[in-house]
Design a protein that fits this description.
Elements: E1 13-17, H1 22-33, E2 37-42, H2 45-57, E3 61-66, H3 72-85, E4 91-94, H4 116-145, E5 148-153, H5 156-159, H6 166-186, E6 191-198, H7 207-210, H8 219-227, H9 240-247, H10 249-252, E7 259-262
Parallel strand pairs: 1-2, 1-4, 2-3, 4-5, 5-6, 6-7
Amino acid sequence: MSGMNLFDLTGEVAVVIGATGVLGGAIAEGLARAGARVGVAGRNTERGETRVKQIRGAGGEAAFFPADAMVRESLHAAQEQVERSLGAPTILVNAAGGNDPKVTLGPDRSFEQVALEDWRVHFDLNLVGGVLLPCQEFGPAMVRRGKGSVINIASVSAHLPLSRVVAYSAAKAAVLSLTQFLAREWAPKGVRVNSITPGFFPAEQNRRVLFNPDGTPTDRARAIMAHTPMARFGEAQELIGAAIYLASAKASGFVTGADIRVDGGFLCHTI
């Protein structure tokens, strides 16, 4: 078997929930370039159709499916539509989630001032919508067919809780735990469950935290740079290799319950 064949996803059907975002969208494009038929799933139709157009323009096969990761019925409808249009999903990438200013600590909000309802909404977005409901909806069909790869998106804050983003850090730590739980449960059924931990990748949800209105880095961005041995932010396409590796049973058939860090060394740096 040649090295290139290890990463050939021809014949696979990938669903990327959150492909309307920067990171999920890059992963969707990468899986398509590797040969998978890709279901671009998300709430924003305009962004989704744009992503599909980009994939098709590069010679890939894709279609957009409206889906709200927080609504089971929406996910169920998306699964049925994907199966009719592209075939039975064999790869699921869970890239929905993000941070919320309502639960971000700062001069105007201390830890004890975080409202419980805001905490619940944000925590559920990253755990329930980010992993639980999509896996409950797409996972059992993979288990019945005896084939599948689930890739969850974690965060460096899942390993070391970052200052200010307490709810996000707690939810992403739970993502790692749920990933390992499902990996153990579904391994005998032929379904692998792994995660990717991105470092700091500028995207719509964190750009205001990382850059001032004039484009200069904020104090927090400079602190991140000082803690990242590679001394730069990641670029979205740098997640593609890890995603293809985990998606391919030929390349990672004995890998489950693992977390791949794509963080420029952030988590290995102390002083």
